[in-house]
Amino acid sequence: MRITHQMMADNAIQNMSENLEKVSKLQGKLSTGKQFQAASEDPARASVSLSLKSNLRTLESYAGTAESAKNWMTAADNALGALDDIGIRASNLILRGLNDSLSGNERANPLAAEMQDLLSQAVELGNTSMNNQYIFAGYQVNAKAFELGRFCRGAVGLPG
């Protein structure tokens, strides 16, 4: 078979066209940073890539949940610490009220008023919320966990 100049030129043009297409694909990969543009170019890598993206989204979700749980636990810990302080102060007031050196009036007025304030503070702490959800409300996070009711007013010498 005889090779003509026309055949060599056609072959060179075809090779240049193929090389230009390859360069264009490589430039596309460089500019986007992706190994392939369509899953059909490399199905095995596409499958691995989709699996990795799914795992990454799952891990990001776990991280968000862990951060939210950490914030809830911090808020609960702070509230419980403050409740502990209130409990200690209430215990001290009770012991002071048991002291025989105080008259009934001295027990009823300042001690009772402070005890009422401590109770109000405890209820407020019991209704601590995070992201508009009450942390001590159990599964009903949109409703307050505690309320001061009528039973507290006027009971045992407490001011009504």
How is this structure best described in words?
It contains 3 helices and 2 strands. Helix 2 packs antiparallel against helix 3. It has helices spanning 5-32, 43-98, 104-126; strands at 129-130, 133-134. Residues 151-160 have low confidence and may be disordered. The longest helix is centred in the middle third of the chain and has 56 residues, at 43-98. It starts with a helix and ends in a 26-residue tail after the last strand. By secondary structure, the chain is mainly α. A hairpin with a 2-residue loop joins strand 1 (129-130) and strand 2 (133-134).
What's a concise summary of this model?
The chain is built from 3 helices and 2 strands, in the order αααββ. By secondary structure, the protein is an all-alpha fold. α2 runs antiparallel to α3.
**Continuous helix count:** 3
Give the distance, in angstroms, between the N- and C-terminal Cα atoms. Answer: 116 Å
Tell me, rounded to a whole number, the average pLDDT: 86
Gyration radius from CA atoms, angstroms? 37 Å
Order of helices and strands: HHHEE
Give the strand line-up of the largest sheet. 1-2
Largest sheet: 2 strands, antiparallel
Descriptive key words:
160 residues, mainly alpha, two-stranded antiparallel ribbon, 3 helices, rod-shaped, disordered C terminus
